[in-house]
Amino acid sequence: MKETNQLAIIVGACLLLAGVSIFFSFGTGLTFEPDLVADSYTAVLENDGTLTETYVYDVASAGTYRMLFRTWDDTLAFDTMQSPYVELIDVKAPADMVGYGIDWRGNSVVTGEGAEEQRALIESLGEYNEMGIFRETRLGAGQYAAQYTVRLHPPLQYDDEDAHFNLKLAATHIPYRSVDITIPGAYVKDIWVRPTSFETVMEDGNYHITGTAGENALIEIEMLLDPAYLEVIDGFPEKTDGVREQTETAALLYTVPALLSSLMLLLGRIGVVAAPLYLIAIFLRHGREKQAVVPEHISFVPDTSLLPWQVNLIFNGDAVDFDENGFYATILDLHRREILHVTEHSDGEGVEIEVLKTVSDDAYEQRVINFVSNAGKGGVLDTRSFALAASAGGEKIAALNTSLSALTSEVNRAISSRYIVEGRGRVLPLVGVGLGITLFSFFLFFISPITAPVSVPAGLLGIVMIIQGGIAAVFPTTLFGAWKEDYYAEKLKWDGFRAFLSDSAMIQRYSPSDLSMWGEWLVYGTALGVGEKVEKAMANLSVDIHETGMPHVHMMYAGFIPVARYTPPSSSGGFGGGGGFGGGGGFGGGGAGGR
């Protein structure tokens, strides 16, 4: 495959990943909505702690829900309590539905026509600290409005200068498409709104807070107020030293991770888009090869001075990868050069390899000779013994498997550096940046879980960058590197030779009369991974492979299968209330849902 085509595949895959990941990174739970969301959530707080909330529930699936509700993490009560609580005032339901509230002890209040008849069913289906609207028959698709009025009796911290009120309006809830919160500003000195993506403006003496909240996103308003506020609200004040300092420190501990998470998210989005551009830039700077004119099909071995294992390493796929074809091609070449002698068994069950010469000047060939000598007896290896060894199991077959695995994957790759400049290292910065974004984002999530809506997508974008780098690394190292001197032209010649051997029509047109040429084609074709195609072409042309003095390639493969595919038996075993400072520490909590 041409390098430009390889680059196009990489860039296309990276852009696809970038588009999908960025699309989902903007998802706040609303990208693919569940079948129940809050189309709008409106909350109005009064100075005395009265909170009026209006939910417009949007039900997408008919016949699924009959209870739409709002829960509280803190105590919901109907009577006066001696500790912080939420006092239920009223529930307004649509005309054909019943409003209800269930307090912290399981007692209920119901409103609306026919409410008393439904009380027992509501109590059996509802949860404690919950208020909502109910219809005995399942709801159809559509929107349903509910209004809840409560009076907050929150914990309050104060000193001589400031009072502190942390109001958590939602923490566990369905997605809210639209959020509109009004906070009276008469006593407020400073305000912190979470999530930080919400917009806060001051109008007519009130803070108007708007935004969109994904599923389970924290919605919290933390305030420093004039101590006079303690006389206005019926709360549970607690004398605390350094209220402002504690509030600002806690807010900072939320704000800094939140800002850093937003930065990581931005960098992640930029990174996944920049990744394919970076890869293109590397290719244009380092990967483009010198132009060379080489025929698409070449009928001769480009360089017979190269040993088959070297051809397999350098010119069969990636220039730093070696596979089993190099091993089998080496055995065939040693047979052709009369260092080994390979004889096929008449029953077609493998081959017999005899060592004729025990020494080779090449280190890899010497390893092959040593393997044959050690695996056989008296300098003769009968591959039928492999099947018996595999059946028996034990250390012998395991040792043979280890040795063969090394011979079919490990060679001295130093020779590659004579031909190429490796380019995979140039992809590492992309992987490194992605890894950095991932680790730092998940660290932010670990120290501040409420940043999850931002830090988790940021971390996932970092993982996408790592994947993009991994995709680039799968392709040949020369794609982002280069062939030295004129070796790219030689590489094209070997490609042309492989293409020739893979085309039976071309072989038929240029079939040699010299039978020894078939042996040479078989050896180097095996090194290039097309040995069996050469063998097939010989059969089609009625060329008897034995007359060439060479064994069948497929017999070689078959003989070593019991060792190559041996897997040792596996062994198994086994083993038998809120109200504090900072993000997430507010009073209230809960949120909207349905069942």
UniProtKB/TrEMBL annotation:
Query: Predicted membrane protein YciQ-like C-terminal domain: which residues?
Result: 301-538
Start and end residues of each DUF2207 domain = 41-224
Chain segments annotated as transmembrane: 7-26, 263-284, 427-447, 459-483
Listed A to Z, the keywords are: Membrane, Transmembrane, Transmembrane helix
What name does the UniProt record give this protein? Answer: DUF2207 domain-containing protein
